[in-house]
Fold this sequence. Notes:
Chain A is an alpha/beta fold. Chain A is 32% helix and 24% strand. In chain A, helix 2 (25-34) packs parallel to helix 10 and helix 17 (455-468) runs parallel beside helix 18. Chain A is globular and about 70 Å long. Chain B has a domain at 37-252. Chain B has 15 helices and 2 strands. In chain B, helix 3 crosses helix 8 (173-191). The radius of gyration of chain B is 20 Å and the shape is globular. The interface between A and B is medium-sized, with 32 and 23 residues.
Amino acid sequence: MSESTSRPESEGTPHPTRGDTSQSHLADIATTDAALELPPEQSGFGEGVIGEVLLDIEGLSKSFGSVHANRDITLNVRRGEIVALLGENGAGKSTLVNQIFGLITPDRGTVSVKGDSTPIKDPRDAIRRGVGMVHQHFQLVPVMTVAENMVLGHESTRAGVVLDLDSARRMVRELSEKHGLAVDPDAEVDDLPVGTQQRVEILKALSRRVDLLILDEPTAVLTPQETDELLGVMRELANSGTSIVFITHKLREVLAVADRVYVLRQGEVVGEVATKETDATGLATMMVGREVVLSIDKEPATPGEPVLEIEDLHVRDDRGLAAVDGFSLTVNAGEIVGVAGVEGNGQRELVEALAGMRKVVSGRMRLGDLDLTTANPYQTHHAGLGHVPEDREKHGIVGSYSIADNLVLNEFDQAPYAKSGVRQFDAVRENAERLREEFDIRSSGVFQTAGSLSGGNKQKVVVAREMAFKPKLLMAAQPTRGVDVGSIEFIHRRIVEARDEGAGVLLVSAELDEILSLSDRIAVVHGGTVVAEMRVEDADRTEIGRLMAGDH
Amino acid sequence: MERLSTWASKNRTPLVIAAAVLVAAYAFNLVRGDIAPSMFGAAWGYAIPLVLAALVGVIGERSGVVNIGIEGQMLLAAFAGFFVAAVSGSMIVGVLAGIGTGLVAGGFLAVTAVRWRMDQIIAGVVLNIIATGLTSFYLVSGQSLPGVIPNVSVPLLSQIPLLGEVFFSGRSVIALIAILAAVLVHLALFHSRWGLRTRAVGEYPSAADTAGIKVERLRMVNVTLAGSLAGLAGVYLSMDASSTFEREMTAGRGFLALAIMIMGAWRPLRAFSMALFFGFVNATASQLQQTGGFSIPPQLTATLPYVATLVVLAVAAGRVRPPGAVGQPYVKKDQ
């Protein structure tokens, strides 16, 4: 997401020539980083003064049941240094930082902050020692105001009991001015966009005296602009002497802002390197533990008959406003059509309408013989639509069901998974074991609950289910969002395979790189309608960026 | 002044409703001065234990703990208050025993539902069953109270026409405490450090935890202390509203209080108003039975309060939102 949409702004930077779709996602990132666009005052990413060791971790281990989440981890962070923890989903990054913040007690090993190696009891203790943390899932009370959230746990009072919210508001204003992070102290957190909520989280951490700031996947929910802004803030904090540990699996960010990187794999530190001495390919290889296949090998498409025809479609969003507004598109068998666009331009509603999850106002959609305009998800599935939904937690899996059950969610009532209304568990299990193998779903077994899998493996469950029945049309919405590098590569390969087996693929993604590297044809959407269609050979990144921004 | 006006604009709807209700009450008093004061008096009398019990629910659920055992807490306290007073010969010892029993019953819920993370509904039901069982088993007849709970009039406030008469003139101490408790719980919940932390713990406990607040401890303290108000409500029933203990004399008030808590949107003062509304519907029902002129069967008029509850709950549902983490035990990450 980040590297794609910020790109068009950089008119001056040389663009990788289109056409070379073999140019990988990852290699692409590497080239981008050389010309990372940031405002001048931020790109003064000069080294701050890096001082003595502030955080020293030795031999840290933590197991959950039989799973070694962290194994013998040793690392250190110096004052004023930005250290990135890089790793695939499930590599143990969050477990590690949660131990620094006192949320998880280590089984073995020591965490010492400023030379004090007594065990950190709880978050209160961590805060007292100068550790602040911005959590991946924001730890803000949604119905409370910014000021209330900011002082929670260290409230100032009048006469010992009466809450002094005026001083809280003042504090918010001062802090937000000092760090250039604008927030309204009286706004209710619920009403704020995620980017702003994160600012509140950061300010909340900074409102206590912080020597070490931990950021757990801070950019996962941010727009490219917000990401750049955050990286700038991090650099400024480091320059003024705060040490930062941040978790990410986006290589661009690591290379842009970190001084040093620790790479984690399966709970262990597998590498430590100064960012100056590495590049995206090197980091990716360390993360995955093997050379990442950087290019998606695909033959030119051999499109066949149309499988999906959409004509003048109109769909409303949740607020009742026109979201899809006169959308027309055809997808043929054996080709991948990428829908590129800034999020919120009707993509979600389009996908939901196609899947039978949202009512259509007017227009026509046909999948083979089925009229999709009035179809429900059961019918769309049986007409041959495979759907990898955008929100896998909500629409893709049932977290409390086993992997095996999740893999037959749309066919559990049919042979061979059921006979005369009785479930056939052997068939379900065999199916699961076969798909687990085939799709490299990493779990302790097929009866593990799907909710306990890492993001990448959850997504593989969804992809496996939706591809297993050989759909005529595979519709994938943000198929690699929040998924680690290894899984991204895997999912991309499977999508191309589906195409090669003759399925039509509709790929909706906010990652322009993903669209460019996978698609045979690209439809750019803006304002709920297709503003341009092109073959990928003719696609130009800058041009697409301009179209996505509504300039056409 | 500016603060007052922002407060007023924020609370416009409730203020307008309150004003309208007051105007209606005074108008009613003007037209039917013969029955209005006694009806309002009866309404408040009925509302007193409901106010106290609803506050128990509000404190519990604002902390994230469902307290379905209010009924049992009240019943145990009514029993303990009455018999301790009768045996000891001291009203004050009886009242303290009642309140203490409420605290212990609250502590029971705190330990089972919070510390042991037993299902909160089941913990409450268990409390209710224990209460019914114990109080029925140990019930003895022929006891009587050694005295009465004193009535007091508040100077100045009792001079206000109608309102003063209903709330502040010749009312029992417990009635005054109920008013005070509603105001205090409101102030504490929304304007104190304890309140901010309590709401955080009930809305989003992991945020409170990461801010260094001990979630489980705060929940236990709140649920336990709220028990004292349930105790007072029980004491009111057996030692003030009547002067005898009867089997299951709480008669569902503990559950009614939960409905009132919901109708009051988990806010103490609104719950207070809803309890009054409920008391008034009750008073109207009994007034209709007494006049009887309309030839409405009394069985039908007796359903009025319940019909009203259903209607109001149906209207309120969807408009009010329970605390985010209500009913969910908080489990730390590595447990």
